[in-house]
Amino acid sequence: ITFRNVIVKTPGKSYVNGLTTSDLGTPDYNQLLIQHAAYIEALKTCGVEVTHLPANEEYPDSTFVEDTAVLTKKFAVVTNPGAASRNREIVEMEPVLKEFYDKIYHIQSPGTLDGGDVLQADHHFYIGISTRTNAEGARQLKEILESEGYQAKIIPLKEFFHLKTGIAYLGHNKMVVAGEFVDHPYFKQYEKIVVSKTNEYSANCIRVNDYVILPKGYEETQRKIEEAGFKTIVLEMSEFQKQDGGLSCLSLRF
Ligand code: CIR
What we know:
Blueprint: E1 5-9, H1 29-45, E2 49-53, E3 69-71, E4 76-78, H2 89-98, E5 104-106, E6 118-121, E7 124-129, H3 135-147, E8 151-156, E9 167-171, E10 174-178, E11 191-195, E12 206-208, E13 211-215, H4 219-227, E14 231-235, H5 238-241, E15 252-253
The structure holds citrulline.
């Protein structure tokens, strides 16, 4: 929740041909670049150092850097992304992580894991099993995290695409939850900010230092987060939403 650094990557023109399950239409590349630039500006407002990587046309979804790694203060875990077209995104990310980390673990095949399926809440991690993260990938990450003194729980997802599609941790024991996580026993101990069905997209928000960044157009969620005591920044995310992406997916924060 207190972060010094973020890594982001400009989307390439090939972005419009990336993976998606939504039927919101083809992204507008110019709007996309404007939205990405605003995202970076918001992070700078939060006081982090931004490592900004150039676009790679070979990987249409590679702006969603979150899926390539799981980062803590002391070590990095390079994932093994579950979508074939995205798997090699890690080859470009690893050298960048080496500039910040001496200790780097890897998720190994046949284990697969996307960073979007991993949520940290203080000393606890939650790992979703999804169409991208399999049981073996989740098991490997749990083992790594436990060996480093963290606790980890594995959650098979029912409806959400990635774990963090429906949940966010804001610190101070406050958890933003939607859909299948609202009544999930694993999140009983948290003070919950419940996101309603029509506002589900806004469950993917991020706390970065003094701010919570959330998508534009979800006033009910914004109000609840502000009532919980947080300052907010809202960002237009339409062109990312078209490719199943949210705010957390666009950066690695550490
Ligand atoms: C994909 O299907 O992989 C991308 N179009 C969206 C990835 C979103 N990432 C995330 O939720 N962490």
